Amino acid sequence: MKNADLAALIRTIPDYPKPGIQFRDITTLLLDGPGFALSIERMAAEIASPPDLIAGIEARGFLFGAALAHRLGCGILLLRKQNKLPGRVTGINYALEYGHDRIEMHADAVQPGQSVLLVDDLIATGGTALAGTELLRSAGAKVAHAAFAIDLPDLGGAARLRANGVDVTALMAFEGD
Q1: Among this protein's residues, is 162 annotated catalytic?
Q2: 148 vs 55: CA distance, rounded Å
């Protein structure tokens, strides 16, 4: 496995949140200072040229996004759940497996033409990442790349992002989930 040393720091919790699911718990990687630092270094190495901004998806995407923004010397833009940001916001509603959700950003957070790297801890079905991409693009941002610590390729999210013109990198992948 790619980045097997980091994958060894991911705890698997069987049957959570429901029977048959193998939950990949990133918090054990976050608890390991050297492992977390190495994950940021390796994510940064995958970025050909630093973006203007990194958009971190709530909540664990904030952790990876902020650390990566610091490493790359760019700003961090927060994509938050509905009604969590003060001031004027713009948002997008999107479908989940069982229902709907909404993510928002400050209306003035991105300028037309800025390059934005989308970052989260994990890509599964891709619904939130696709919504984030659409929200950023609707504000005029160029979203050509998304980076994740974990990919669950059998759930198809990375493939869905690629089909929408977004290059996807992930430090590690767990098949069969």
Answers
A1: no
A2: 12
Count helices and strands (H / E) in the chain. Answer: 6, 9
Model confidence pLDDT, tens digit, residues 70-79: 999 999 999 9
Output the CA torsion 120→88→76→3 (10° steps): 0
What does pTM read for this prediction? Answer: 0.95
Q: 33 exposed, middle or buried (CB, 10 Å; 0-12, 13-18, 19+)? A: exposed
User: Which residue out of 42, 46, 88, 97 is catalytically annotated?
Assistant: 97
Pick the catalytic residue from 41, 42, 58, 60. 60
Q: Which CATH architecture has domain 49-173?
A: 3-Layer(aba) Sandwich (3.40)
Are 37 and 64 contacting, i.e. CB atoms less than 8 angstroms apart?
A: no
Residue 160, CA distances (Å) to 119, 145, 164 in order:
16, 13, 7
The verdict on whether 97 is a catalytic residue reads yes
pLDDT in tens, 103-115: 999 999 999 999 9
Other CB atoms within 10 Å distance of the CB of residue 23: 14
